[in-house]
Structures are given as structure tokens and as C-alpha cells.
Design goal:
Length: 219
Amino acid sequence: MNQGIRILIAEDHPVVAEGYADLLKDSEDFNVLGIANTMQEVYYQLKFQKIDILLLDLVLPNNSKTEYSQVAGYEILDFIKKNDINVRSIILSSHEEPSFIVKAQSKGAMGYLSKKADKMELREAIRTVEYDRREYIQKNLLATIIRQENPDGITLTQRERCILRHISEGLTSRQIADKLCLANDTIRDYRDSLIKKFGAKNSVNLIKIAAENGYLTHV
């Protein structure tokens, strides 16, 4: 019997958590196993249940529901990595700043959505991460990351540097997407953004400009 995608919701606000559960319960391929209100509950569920997708708020209380940790989500991601737990995490957060997203990615999160994301995007994120094993960043948040620039020059995120290196190696968007477990359209967006950032005419010109300005020596 197909159990569907087994989902744990890590969220301490009951109305919000139940709202997520309601958004998912009418899909046959989703199976919400429960709601964890504290960090310790998340740890317990991860240890003793088989979970496919963890929908994770970045801010959660520790044991009691009064002492909040502003870095709970990051600590849970570290716990997952340290204990080699086979679960894919999608962040659901009110923090939409690029720094939060990039840090979550660096710690192993496979997805990042704003709490304002609609039902269709939440479902798409879960299916992309679980079925396709690809990273999913909410579209408007991804646009914010790849537009980010430094007034004194061009600032590249870790992801942009990685993609720039692969472009310099002659890989196609599809090959880069497969290597990084990202959607092909996402790589195209990054490629187009890099071309615009460097004021290049095309990918070949992008690599020429990046090399001349020393960006390929640090990727």
C-alpha cells in the first residue's frame, strides 16, 4: 500500500501548523504524520519515525513553549546532517532575506518558502524535492537572491559562484541542473542573471569578462 509522501510539520503556532496540514490533506500523495511544536519534539520524531519531508520553521521553542531559539531551524538541519538522517527539509519561514536562504541551503535544506506562499507552490515544492530530488526555492525569493549586488562591485552568492564555474567548464544548463539537483529553469534564471550582472552579451562573453576580472580564480 502506497503511504504517500510522509510529512512532518515543525511549527509551534497551532493555527499555522493546522493550516499547512489542511492545505495538504486533500492530496492522495501526501501523508501528514504529525506536527512537532518544539525542537525536542522534532528530534524525537526524526529519530523514531520514517519521514520523507520535514516542513521546518526556522524559529521554534526548545523544550518548554516559552524559551524560543532564533536558530532552531539551523540547529535541526545540523542535527539531521550529523546523524545522517534520510529526510529532505523544506524551510517555511517569515524570514525572506537572502542571507537566511543561503545559510539554510549551506546546511542542507532542499527547499525554502515564505509563510505567505500559496497552496500550489507549497505542493510543488514538496513534489519537486521528494520526487525529482531537486532543490526548490520560492520563485520570488530566488529572484531576490540572484539580483543581489554590492554597490562597490559584483557580489556573487555561493550558488552563483558554483554555477559560474560550471558554465566556465562548458556545461549546459541541463548538465548543471542534473549535477546540482536543481530545475533546468532555475539554472537558466541564474545564467541570465549572471550575464546581466557582468554586462555580458552571452555565456561565452560572460566567462571572458569573469576571467578577466578574477572571478574564476575564486570559484
